[in-house]
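Now for my pick.
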Amino acid sequence: MATRRRLTIAALAAAAALTLPAAAGCSAIDKALDCAHVAATVAGDVQNLQNAVSNAGNSPQDAVNALDQISADLKDVGSKTDNADVTKAVNDLNTAVQNARTAANKGTTPDVSPVADAASELTKVCTPG
C-alpha cells in the first residue's frame, strides 16, 4: 500500500513538473499575441492619425482624438509586458504621441512621422519569430 501511494505521488509530481513549463510557455505566447494584437491596433490608429492630419482643415479635433486612441491602446500593452524591447518601443511611441499632441494643442499640424516610426518599431518587437 505504501509503495502504491509513493508511485501515485511520484506520478502526480511528474505530471505537475511537465505541466508547469507548458503553462509558463502558454503565458509567454499569450503575452506575445497580446502585444501583436495591440501593435496591429496601434497601426490602425496611426493610419487614422495620418488621415486626420491630412484632413486637419476639416476637423483638427480628429487628430487629437486619434492621438488619444493611440495612448489608450498603449496603456494595455505597456502594463502587461516585462520585455525590455517592448517597453522601450511603447515609451518611444508615447513620447512621439505626446510631442504630436503638444503641436496639435498649439494649433500647428503635428509631424506624425515620429509616431509612425515608433509604431513601426512596436510592430517589429511585437512580431513573434
